[in-house]
Specification:
Severin, six-stranded mixed beta sheet, three-stranded antiparallel beta sheet, 7 helices, elongated, ADF-H, ADF-H/Gelsolin-like_dom_sf
């Protein structure tokens, strides 16, 4: 997956997180995008257990400003390191550019700091979603979508077969597979329609493991560079905004798009033949 927002992890953030992992004294790190860089923007030490400390998360959430939160659990991985939760907070009333920026930089942040350290990911737009109650609801929803047992798979296949028989009686073609779009993908597409959007291109990919359509990248790109932006080894969906000015959609523009003019070579006319002789005159 290739996100090209251009935002990178700062050395300061890399040092803070490395220290948090080695010394195990931090419960929370807030990360913000400042001056085109991912920087630490507030930390909180551990006080009690992770559930008791969870209330501090809301203290770091501002009404209109997105941010990332690294929250440390008390559980440890097989390597003996503490496990972390990765949170993305993007308020609905935040600026469109900020929404796009934070959505397209998540993968870079995780990749550069080591996504194996994070056992869960939470995305939300309200402070309530980042309360302990909100997180527990998130976990229940996630557990409800856990992989099925073999017996459950068999029952699901039987029900699916019955449904297909009933459906095929009404329709002659097979039903399609519906993969939902992630919040980041939806926001990226909606962002193209905003007057203050600085991007004109959104690219999506199909995550077959999660069975969702995810955001690959959202950038401002020239049309002659579109072809090179697509990977050669995997498919992509793409939305390209050719113009963002409604005044461009004139009658002549639409007619040219629907019925483009073509140049034709001038028709060549044969020179008329002279009239034939009516008869032969003998001397």
């Amino acid at each position: 997956m290739s996100h090209q927002s251009g935002i990178r992890v700062s050395q300061e953030l890399a040092d803070v997180f490395a220290k948090a992992v080695s010394e195990n004294n931090l419960r929370l790190i807030r990360i913000s995008i400042i001056n085109e860089s991912l920087v630490p923007n507030g930390t909180k030490d551990t006080a009690k257990n992770w559930e008791s400390d969870f209330a501090v998360v809301s203290e770091f959430l501002e009404e209109k400003t997105p941010c990332y939160i690294f929250y440390r659990l008390d559980s440890k991985s097989s390597t003996g390191d503490y496990e972390w939760i990765f949170m993305t907070y993007v308020p609905d009333i935040s600026k469109v550019r900020d929404k796009m920026l934070y959505a397209s930089t998540r993968a870079t942040l995780l990749k550069e700091l080591g996504d194996s350290r994070f056992v869960d990911s939470v995305y939300g737009s309200t402070a309530a979603e980042f309360s302990l109650d909100g997180y527990q609801k998130h976990k229940k929803h996630k557990e409800a979508d856990a992989p099925l047992t073999e017996r459950e798979k068999e029952l699901a296949e039987v029900k699916s077969a019955e449904a297909n028989v009933s459906y095929s009686a009404r329709k002659s073609h097979a039903a399609g597979i519906s993969f939902p779009m992630s919040d980041e993908a939806i926001q990226a597409i909606q962002g193209l329609l905003q007057p203050d959007s600085t991007n004109n291109f959104v690219k999506l990919f199909l995550d077959t493991k999660k069975e969702t359509i995810e955001l690959d990248e959202t950038v401002n790109i020239d049309i002659d560079k579109l072809a090179k932006s697509f990977p050669t080894d995997s498919p992509r969906y793409a939305f390209y905004l050719e113009t963002n000015d409604p005044e461009d959609f004139t009658k002549s523009y639409i007619l040219d798009e629907l019925h483009p003019t073509t140049e034709t070579a001038p028709m060549r006319f044969s020179r008329p033949k002279p009239p034939g002789r009516k008869g032969i005159v003998r001397a």
